[in-house]
């Protein structure tokens, strides 16, 4: 059984502190241990990845998130892709995985269960998302439950049925700038007002929000000028860190993304991860240090 193999992880026990009483969270999608020192989290696709980050010398990864959507657990997959659908056997999978998840939390390997990315806007019905969140919380009560949604889920009428699950501890949305939005006031004049108008009023009393800053080079924003896009990413991560420090219900930031995604040979500079740019890395370091020290 998988949870027996995890028994070797019995290093110093760590207790998860709810985000209201702890430093802010900073991690990334597609993370790596290169972020050690300025990140305390990351969306890891397997327990083994989270363990490696937590047990590395001088690790700062105290708030690791296990990406349940990507985890190929020995008991089954939680979410089916295209369109996203909850595995009908999700409760049995959580029942089987509960001891493993609780052990990983108790020894500090993980602190957060990440349900997935853009679940409602990719087809998962609202009741199923709520059931998924509840089962995750029940499987590991000391874990924080978090997921990311599309911004339109909160602002478009076709998603009027959507409700933030009552068992969710944190939620974020994808809200990225277009080519005409690359200015120094975009975060404070556009993103923060959006959260205040559409997201915060819909949160359960205990639920906090996360920001998801851009942390990559996109040629669709600045054609053939990926370096310039990275410069904006760096600046916006710092702006998001400042905004999060001033917003009482902000738990932290989880920028998208660190490691590069596979790219098309016809566009070798499209969608490059932050780790490929020294400018972007500097911005991530500044934002991470600011949030971890807040």
Helices and strands, in order, run as: HEEHEEEHEHEHEHEEHEEH
Distance between the termini: 40 Å
* Widest beta sheet: strand line-up: 1-11-9-8-7-6-3-2
CA-atom Rg in angstroms: 18 Å
Biggest β-sheet: count, sense, barrel?
A: 8 strands, parallel
Strand content: 5-15%
Descriptive tags:
294 residues; alpha/beta; TIM Barrel; 8-stranded parallel beta sheet; two-stranded antiparallel ribbon; 8 helices; 33% helix; 14% strand; disordered N terminus
Q: Can you walk me through this structure?
A:
With 294 residues, this protein is an alpha/beta fold. The chain has helices at 2-5, 47-55, 90-106, 126-139, 152-155, 186-199, 226-246, 278-292, and strands spanning 25-26, 43-44, 65-67, 79-80, 85-86, 112-117, 144-150, 170-174, 208-211, 216-217, 250-253, 272-273. The strands form three sheets. The protein has an eight-stranded parallel beta sheet with strand order 1-11-9-8-7-6-3-2. It has a two-stranded antiparallel ribbon with strand order 4-5. 46% of the residues are buried. Residues 1-21 have low confidence and may be disordered.
């Amino acid at each position: 059984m998988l949870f027996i193999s995890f028994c070797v992880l019995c290093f110093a026990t760590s207790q998860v502190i709810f985000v209201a009483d702890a430093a802010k969270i900073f991690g990334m999608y597609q993370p790596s241990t290169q972020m050690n020192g300025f990140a305390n989290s990351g969306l890891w696709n397997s327990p083994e990845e989270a363990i490696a980050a937590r047990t590395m010398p001088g690790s700062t990864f105290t708030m690791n998130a296990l990406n349940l959507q990507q985890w190929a657990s020995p008991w089954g997959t939680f979410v089916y892709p295209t369109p996203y659908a909850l595995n009908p056997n999700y409760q049995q999978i959580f029942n089987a995985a509960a001891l493993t998840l609780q052990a990983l939390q108790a020894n500090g390997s993980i602190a957060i269960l990440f349900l997935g990315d853009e679940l409602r806007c990719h087809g998962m019905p609202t009741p199923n998302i709520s059931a998924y969140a509840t089962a995750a919380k029940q499987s590991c009560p000391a874990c924080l439950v978090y997921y990311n949604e599309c911004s339109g889920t909160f602002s478009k009428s076709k998603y009027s049925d959507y409700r933030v699950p009552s068992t969710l501890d944190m939620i974020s949305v994808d809200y990225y700038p277009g080519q005409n939005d690359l200015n120094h006031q975009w975060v404070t004049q556009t993103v923060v007002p959006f959260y205040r108008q559409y997201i915060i009023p819909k949160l359960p009393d205990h639920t906090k929000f996360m920001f998801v800053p851009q942390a990559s080079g996109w040629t669709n924003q600045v054609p053939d000028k990926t370096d310039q896009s990275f410069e904006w990413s760096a600046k916006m991560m710092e702006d998001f860190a400042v905004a999060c420090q001033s917003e009482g219900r902000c738990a932290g930031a989880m920028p998208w993304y660190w490691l590069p995604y596979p790219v098309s040979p016809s566009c070798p500079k499209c969608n490059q991860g932050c780790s490929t740019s020294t400018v972007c890395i500097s911005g991530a370091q500044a934002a991470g240090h600011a949030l971890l020290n807040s």
